[in-house]
Amino acid sequence: MTSSRTQREFQCPGEPAGISRAVHLARLADGYPACRECGHRDDAEGLTDRSRKRIPGPRARKRPADFLTDEGVWGELHNGFDSTLAGRFAAGFGMLLREEIGSPGAYPCVAAATDGRAVTQRHFAQIVEQLRWAGCDVVELGSVPCPALPWAMGETEADGGIYLGNPQGDPHRAGMRFYGRGGRPITGIASLQAVSDRVDEEPARPVRVSGKAEQAEVLDSYTSRFSECFHGLRPLRFVLHTTCRPVGNCVERLLSATACRIVLHESETAVPAGPLPEAAGHFAAAMEDDGQRLRLWDERGRPVAFESLFLLIAARVYAGELSGRTVVLGEGTGQVLAAALEQRGPAVERCGPLPSEMHAAMVAGRAALGADRAGRIWYGEAGGSVIADALATLALVLGRLSEGDRPLSAVLDAEAARH
Description:
The chain contains 13 helices and 16 strands. The longest helix is centred in the first third of the chain and has 19 residues, at 83-101. By secondary structure, it is of the alpha/beta class. The protein has three domains: 1-59, no CATH class; 64-220, 3-Layer(aba) Sandwich (Alpha-D-Glucose-1,6-Bisphosphate, Chain A, domain 3), CATH 3.40.120; 225-416, Alpha-D-Glucose-1,6-Bisphosphate, subunit A, domain 3 (Alpha-D-Glucose-1,6-Bisphosphate, Chain A, domain 3, 3-Layer(aba) Sandwich), CATH 3.40.120. Strands 1, 2, 3, 4, 5, 6 and 7 form a seven-stranded mixed sheet that branches. A hairpin with a 7-residue loop joins β4 and β5 (173-180).
């Protein structure tokens, strides 16, 4: 927390708004997690001895490498993953891109986007500022679903991309994903360690003049890909949960000219597994992982197995004719799905569990469809883009349900009985 001598205002680590001294003391007495990182945690005058005992002890400082995961940089907002660290990772990524280009006078172009949460506004501002400090030109895409970033990169000449979001569906956490040219995911501890190595120590500034920054609108072109899928829909009603607000905005935009109606539930907390009692409609859906993953519940509120959803999507993508096609399955997707696909005729290619491995396998095999262990469905598009996109999955589900008047459970049963 920071305080002014006159107003005695404080600010919790990782939070954008200031708080009063009374709130500061109340949080100390309540053992508020952010107090572990607070520079004024010892300013407890006015608390009883009993309340002082509840003040959480200081937490050991984490190293940048401690925030690495297989898919990016994740962290608790009250446990070290602050705007400064996010900016340092962005600078490290920018310097890595400069080294890869190998031309001292060149300024790499980096596309940057966010899920728009208020709690990470400072994080995003630091990401943009530090990319420019590292000698990168930045294209700010603003608040968009995560799939819109790699898609936009596939349409532009961007050398890299960073997405700041809420991949774990936790209001107290945030994450950064990194992309290479063409929207290729940069994943795996070994690959991300190259970024982290440039964060451990304060680097020398690589350029004297900061990179440029400009803004770009991509939602219109991103959602226009689905326009045809949203024509001729029957008047479906469904519940949509999302942890990424821009996703809900995209769905509402696409459905505005249809007879479909949604009950939109926006929350930073992911929907738990299990039945949904409020699925009073044709179905319910949850769009998670920053808009990359779709989970379904049928009209009875029962969860739809991922295998059933994927078979439905595969039949839709390949117009019911899977024989001779190629489908990529990531490690951990299980034998049930592989066996069901093999009965239908496509060639099943295997790859590792990482998004970068899925991307490489689908590009090499020219596959139009893939699935990974996280429950994401990947789509290979014209031009070589490979994207996990929950909006594409939802569009295909709506189209399939609009072919008749059967409920989702009956459509899934019919697809399962085809072979």
